């Protein structure tokens, strides 16, 4: 930025410019966007925009810095929640839901998507940042299961990181009503992949519950009956008991 806004009015103007830029980037793409289009969207004079930003790349870097700040905070909170040793499914549920809600803001969604289009334009997000996330995940997996070898934990973390980002990117490129089913599949995939490795004495075959009526794996627990867990199928809406216990 050319200068930092100090007065409340200036801070509000910068906020409008950043939000408008994100919306324009989403609508027409970064390459087709101009500073005049951003100023018009923000309902501010082009001269006011140039007081703070010399060009659209500077605006994008401001969005990137905001995204980095928020992602760092979210990741710290998610990893801290893992220390509570809740079931893996609850941890995955929280992680996916947290980022699903976070990326509803176009200011952050556009930065994330743009990274997969032109990573060379980024200042803060690079391979070292990805490697740091992978190491954090690997450390977390070993805390969950101390029997897990370092090399195996790193391989699991790398696989999760790559698959999760690819599937999340696909979900974010869909219209809003089409995202939730994809989020649900991300959760199911991560739980199925990680469950055999995130408990001591792992490597056993994981029991995967499916609906006996439609064979869907999109289930939710729905209380107990006769001492057995009852499930509700999210696809066909029917209930059934876990007969295996």
TrEMBL record:
It comes from Nostoc parmelioides FACHB-3921. The keyword Metal-binding does not apply. Keywords: DNA-binding. Residues 11-71 form the HTH tetR-type domain. The keyword DNA-binding applies. Residues 34-53 bind DNA. InterPro entries: Homeodomain-like_sf, HTH-type_TetR-like_transc_reg, HTH_TetR, TetR_C_15. This is TetR/AcrR family transcriptional regulator.
